[in-house]
Design brief:
By secondary structure, the protein is α/β, with parallel strands linked by helices. It contains 17 helices and 17 strands. The strands form two sheets. A ten-stranded mixed sheet has the order 8-17-16-15-14-13-12-9-10-11, with helices on both faces. Strands 3-2-1-4-5-6-7 form a seven-stranded parallel sheet. Helix 16 crosses helix 17 (483-497). It is elongated and about 80 Å long.
């Protein structure tokens, strides 16, 4: 699903108006009607509903919604937030159509008291806002946030920008419990710091012209199930273990063998034909007792990775989980970068070593996959003030080093050497547990070994990882979820996806 910037959404509206064709007032009616259909089943007839409508088109949507609610017998009061003397033509038409239960807010003294058991619908500014809210409107937003009432935002929480950062400490922004976005999700929804303001969000189709939607160029997208499903390959009847590749996992150290075990388990469950795990000598018992399917490559050192095995048998390599950052390990990693001729995944301590040796980044094999969490990425690419800056740094990093960067978290972002970004749609807070990232590394490694392209392996691995987490959370709850549960649910994730 495309994440379309606000400027392009306006173009989509205009294109639809001229090419469907449809009058702008009728397009507004259709949008608000679809919104009403989305929210009405969750509303109680006896509950008092306050709709706060600005004087632009977002306010016009709110007025249509008010009229539809009143028509169906809901208890609605509409408040016109008159922050200017100029209103949009479609707002004016819908104000004349509504006619009843309307009051105006023109100053701080007009701000009504809203009770905690009432419902607020925010249609003050929407996605068209391009400067911070000020004056009595800011006071209104602060008052609504303090009411304790449930808040539904129409298209965007008022005060929040769709495509850029806002100073969350200084500016007044509606804290929505639910946000219903017209036609496309907004980039702001994917930024962690905005979660308090966006709440749970949903996209409401409004019938924008398919020619525009299909052809508009965007750099940000959401990963959808149907797209991931199209990537999955079917296994030929006469295939064998060699058909599905030979993976090498370089992981673990004397005190961190668990990371290697988790990553190995995920790789085996990904469908890889063969797996070798390169371990410090004498540290193999736990791995082979849990996963006898894994083969062992022994390092000469008893505590950490210090030398390269023969790389020729392998179709893909991953390095990092539980590795440690010993100087021997760093030297061996440098040699691996120089010697490898196959796709590679860099995670955990491999990333920390790269962060301490940034000149090595230029020698990463093209198409490498890096899987940092935000702090690891900061060490690699530099500090950032907000998630928008982090995302731009991530895109720039992928372009500069011809790599795929998987920045882990809610809505994990995957950036490509072409400057695109894909946001994941699976996963849950129960996955915020030690070892979850090791599982992801093993999944991606196994997919690479099966000759999935790096782009495919990154997206498919992230999506399956999150889907496994969703299945695990459904079965045992988020609080009890541990990383090994993700491995156990990978087979169910594949089955569910198919």
């Amino acid at each position: 699903m495309k994440i379309v910037p606000v400027a392009k959404i306006r173009e989509a509206d205009e294109y639809t108006i001229h090419n469907e064709p449809i009058a702008s007032i009728d397009l507004m009616e259709r949008a608000a009607t679809n919104l009403y259909t989305s929210i009405k089943t969750g509303l109680a007839k006896g509950q008092r509903i306050h709709i706060f409508a600005g004087i632009g088109n977002n306010g016009g949507d709110g007025l249509v919604l008010a009229r539809l609610l009143q028509h169906d017998g809901f208890n609605v009061k509409t408040w016109i937030v008159q922050y200017s003397d100029q209103c949009s033509p479609d707002f004016q038409i819908n104000l004349e159509r509504l006619k009843e239960n309307i009051s105006f807010i023109k100053s701080e003294s007009d701000i009504p008291a809203v009770e905690a058991d009432e419902l607020i619908i925010d249609a003050i500014f929407g996605s068209g806002l391009n400067r911070p809210v000020s004056g009595f409107t800011a006071k209104l937003i602060d008052s609504l946030n303090q009411s304790g009432a449930v808040v539904i935002a129409v298209d965007m929480p008022s005060g929040l920008f769709a495509d850029k950062a806002v100073d969350l400490k200084k500016h007044s922004i509606i804290k929505a419990d639910y946000t219903y976005s017209f036609m496309f999700p907004k980039l702001a929804f994917l930024m962690p710091e905005n979660d308090l303001y966006v709440g749970r969000w949903e996209v409401v189709p409004i019938g924008l012209h398919p020619d525009f939607v299909d052809h508009v160029e965007v750099k940000n997208r959401l990963i959808e199930t149907v797209y991931i499903n199209s990537m999955l390959r079917h296994r030929p009847k006469f295939s064998h273990k060699g058909t599905y590749g030979h993976a090498l996992l370089i992981a673990g150290s004397k005190t961190k063998m668990g990371a290697a075990i988790l990553s190995a388990g995920a790789c085996l469950r990904s469908g890889a034909g063969l797996l070798h795990v390169h371990l410090p000598v004498g540290n193999h018992t736990a791995l082979q007792s849990i996963y006898p399917e894994a083969m062992i490559s022994f390092d000469d050192n008893e505590t950490h990775f210090s030398w390269l095995p023969d790389l020729s048998p392998y179709n893909a390599i991953a390095i990092g989980p539980g590795l440690g950052t010993h100087h021997d390990t760093a030297n061996a990693l440098k040699l691996l970068i120089q010697e490898s001729q196959v796709p590679m995944v860099f995670d955990a301590d491999a990333l920390n070593i790269l962060a301490d040796n940034k000149t090595w980044l230029s020698f990463l094999p093209a198409g490498s996959i890096l899987t940092p969490h935000p702090k690891e990425f900061e060490r690699l690419a530099g500090k950032f003030d907000d998630s928008y800056e982090r995302l731009q740094l991530q895109i720039d990093f992928s372009i500069r080093y011809k790599s795929y960067v998987v920045c882990k978290g809610a809505h994990t972002s995957i950036t490509t050497p072409q400057g695109q970004c894909w946001f994941n749609t699976t996963g849950n807070p129960g996955m915020a547990t030690g070892g979850s990232g090791d599982v992801l590394t093993g999944l991606i490694l196994g997919l690479l070994a099966q000759q999935y392209k790096p782009f495919e392996a990154a997206l498919l691995g992230v999506f399956l990882h999150g889907l496994s987490g969703d299945i695990a959370a459904d079965e045992m709850g988020m609080e009890a979820l541990i990383a090994s549960d993700l491995i156990n649910c990978i087979p169910k994730a594949f089955t569910k996806l198919k």
